[in-house]
Amino acid sequence: MNFEVVFVLAVVIGMLICLIKEVARPDFILFCTLAVLLLSGILPPVDALKGFSNEGMLTVALLFIVAGAVKQSGTLNQLVVKALSTGKSPRMSLIKMMIPISGMSAFLNNTPIVVMFTPVVRKWCKDHNIAPSKFLLPLSYAAIFGGTWTLIGTSTNLVIHGFMLEKGMSGFSMFQLAIVSIPASIFGILFMVTIGYKLLPDRKTSEEAFEESSKEYLSEAIIETQSPLIGKSIEKAGLRNLKGLYLIEVISNGERTAPVPSFYKIKENDRLIFTGLFSTIVELQNIRGLTVETGTDLKLEDLQNGSASLVEAVVSHQSTLIQKTVKESKFRSKYDAGVVAVHRNDERINNKVGDIKIKPGDTLLLLANKDFLTRWSNSNDFYLLSSIDQPEIIDAKKSYIALFTLILMILLAAFEILPMFKAAVLAVVVLFLTKTVSFEGARKYIQFDVLIVIACAIGIGIALETTGAAELIANQFVLLTKGFGVLGAVFVVYLLTSFFTEIITNNAAAVLMFPISLHVANQLAIDPMAFFVTIAIAASASFATPIGYQTNLIVYGPGGYRFSDYLKIGIPLNLLYLLVTVSIVYFVWVG
């Protein structure tokens, strides 16, 4: 074992530890890892940059634009609502929701699908007196199921496809993965409407928890006549840095100011709305010229009117807010919105809002201006789950063009008239020429953090291969599974990929396993397609934790779930997918 192999393995292990401990955003960790390999001379610049020109990565970028254009179509919402309504029982409604969601995820990015349908499904559940916790986790799982059906269903499939093309292989066909994934999805859906439905909790959502406990964290104070505070700014009046309370809104003569800037000049009879620890209300009572309204019946709905609205946002893995307190992130000035409350692990955090350290999966209740949704709907910091009242698309004609373009792209790739990359290029060109998508809109749709993870992971994978580290791991792998044959090797590849997916990212897991499994296939003298299909399914089939896959994180807070709920339902589902995948892969590509 030479120095280069030891160095690369040490760097990769360090990267995995950083990803598991979430010391920074995944894209930053992988970029730094690639930079270390480049600066150390292990990777020449041409290899370090290969990921940024990889066909799979570029196809993912183009598909973000296509998916963004199609997402504007209101027909998707109508399809799911109609499917839910035709169910004669909750379980039948669950089946009729999961099938179309899986179908959409087979051709569109599953993250925006879950973001789009979470408020739709939650509202339907509320209208039919059903706990949304019975439907939101199946919504996430259905999106994951569908993502494994096609080449374009998830970025992971395209990354593996891009690697295969670079190795001179033919890559995946459009529906090659469906040989395994559709049977697995059928078993998965049947599990969710039988055993899974019983295991799903009957619990309040974050929205209900915020509403029911509003009296515990909302308080109100009124500026008295002749108050010494009149004419002073919020900052000079000492209302900005209270020990346990956080000023979220001022109501003055019926006009609302939210969030409240530090320079706001206080007026007579202003109503000041605070959130935070009710036990610290004595802070307000000790301020001269301020009357504290004890026993107020203030409700969340009282905070919003024509100019201000309440918005729920789930903090993403890529968020710049992670490990910062609300105050440290300067949330109010950065996003022009005030944090009213924070929900985590099925309960509201009972603390001063400004001192709460934000974590992935936290659900933030925000008080913001009406244009907040428009400005931050494509932010990488959080997923906005509040329903948007205005139509999703202004021009219905553009909606049909987007849907037609998607179908055309799929047909061109499926019948191998054009390679997937060229079909995606053509689709984006059509969308630009018809002005269905503008260049500015395209930038909003592209998730650059995902592309950086993919591009950097590819460079790291190349380092594993060129230094011989992947071959060394493969040798040990073959020795470990020698007594179990090829079936045992496929089984362990699935387990390892699934394990990495649950603790790091699906794309990074796939890229790390690709060169290792290629060497294993060569040593066992079998078709490497068996391992590539196994990796593609295992990297996406992440059900056991809320942190393993973005869609699981999105429904975590809104569904009122606990970490244990994912383990209880996800582990049996993971095992089910493992058995189905390994069995079919073995008989189709090995036996």
How is the topology of this model organized?
Layout: H1 3-21, H2 26-39, H3 45-48, H4 55-71, H5 75-85, H6 90-105, H7 110-127, H8 136-147, H9 155-166, H10 178-193, H11 195-199, H12 206-212, H13 214-217, E1 218-223, E2 245-252, E3 255-257, E4 271-276, H14 282-285, E5 290-293, E6 308-315, H15 331-335, E7 337-344, E8 347-348, E9 363-369, H16 372-376, E10 382-384, H17 396-414, H18 420-433, H19 439-445, H20 448-466, H21 469-480, H22 485-503, H23 506-524, H24 529-540, H25 550-556, H26 563-590
Antiparallel strand pairs: 1-4, 1-5, 2-3, 2-4, 6-9, 6-10, 7-8, 7-9
Helix pairs in contact: 1-2, 2-20, 4-9, 4-17, 4-18, 4-19, 4-20, 5-6, 5-7, 6-8, 7-8, 7-25, 8-10, 8-25, 9-23, 10-26, 17-18, 20-23, 21-23, 22-23, 22-24, 22-26, 23-24, 24-26
Membrane topology: Multi-pass membrane protein
InterPro entries: Cit_transptr-like_dom, DASS-Related_Transporters, Na/sul_symport_CS, RCK_C, RCK_C_sf
Subcellular location: Membrane
Summarize this, please?
This protein is α+β, with helices and mostly antiparallel strands. It contains 26 helices and 10 strands. It is 55% helix and 9% strand.
